[in-house]
Amino acid sequence: MRILLASSSVGLGHIVRDRVLAYALSDLGFDVEVLCSEPALSYARHWGLKIHRASYNIESLSKIYSEYYLSKEYGGFSLSFISRVNKVVNMNKARILEEVVINDYEAIIADESWELMKIFVEKPTLYSGIHKILITDFLFFKPTYIAEIPSSILLNIFLRKSYRVFDTKLYVGLKTAASKYGFIDIGPLPSALKGEMLGKNDAKKILKLDDRYSILFSMGGTAGGIDMLEIIIRSIEIVGRELKDRNSVSLIIAPGSEYNRSLVKKILEKLSPSIDIEILEDMYSLPKVVKAFDIIISPAGLGIISLMISSGVPGIIFPLKRHFEQEENARIAPKIWEGIRSLEKHPVDEKKLASLLKIMLRTKPGAPPDIYKNVEKTVNLIKARISSHARDV
Fold first, then answer.
1. Does the residue 195 lie in any domain?
2. Does residue 194 sit within a domain?
3. Which neighbouring-strand residues pair with 168?
């Protein structure tokens, strides 16, 4: 049976979990083809996924988000920004309809793919023979301030319409109350399959890391967290001074995209940091080598939180400003595993972060919850639903 897996191009978190699902579904005998754009496309290619040719002709939403985060006009998800995103989504939707024969597939999995959600909302009866599966880690848009209210109303109307046209709806977020909206609670999906992650020593050898404390700053697929880079560097410099050895701690940056890599290089040239800093070359292999690190620092995206939990590497998360999903994640994640600490309040300074880093370097958290079981639960459910739909058609 053929499955088209359409992965959101906002950041990397979607394609990371979708890669895991694609591998697991392939093991069950499904022919899985992925539809996505950059930077998800580069990640999918790195992991050898089967990619639909239309992926090379659709525009990236990550680029729009990154440019907006870095602009002076950034003020949350305003109506003007949502309109810009919607324009690109409509353009992508038209290209998908031109290049993808949707009815050639027994099932479509849309992981927050706005394009596929729109296609099914606009012509629900046309695709009734296909089992339509929605994967999401948020249910409704929650405005963080008054300018987001108009956009939240419009988005939530669309979300309610889209939920009605999907046959199976899977919630993979941190909350556990999704069932009342017709979703099946799955829980977070890991960033790798069981057995794919290398042990700490093997991972350090591949990355050529020595015995110093190694801190990873994972930026994610958008550039939203780049304004924290200088604060992170200065906080690690403080920790080094207090350990009486600046060379006792090193920083490795996972840029998440080539666009982010260029931004990081420009910032490092201006800062002249006193600690050793490296930019991860093979950034898309991070799930395999993540155990090489002692602490992860990152924006509070679900993808990185899942990576922390699935690897057992403790971390510090901070929500991007006026990003309701990340603000929720920053509140909930530390309650799920004690190895995750959150910098919920803005602004964050280097002294506050340095203090938290010192505490985390001296303490060892308990074992994280097992989220690997969520993969088996998901793919077995998908298999059963697709088979049942095929019998009913």
1. no
2. no
3. 133
Cα 104 to Cα 4: distance, rounded to the nearest angstrom: 9
What angle separates helix 79-99 from helix 149-165, to the nearest 10 degrees? Answer: 30
In a domain, 367, yes or no: no
- Asked whether residue 108 is assigned to any structural domain, the reply reads yes
Domain that holds residue 29: 2-189+372-392
Residues 164 and 207 in one domain: no
Q: Are residues 380 and 354 in the same domain?
A: no
Of these ranges, 224-233, 272-281, 358-367, the one predicted with the greatest mean pLDDT is 358-367
159 in the same domain as 10: yes
Structure tokens at 333: 């994640």
Residue 205 has pLDDT above 80, yes or no: yes
Amino acid at 346: H
Q: What is the pTM of this model?
A: 0.91
What's the pLDDT tens digit per position in 212-227?
899 999 987 776 778 8
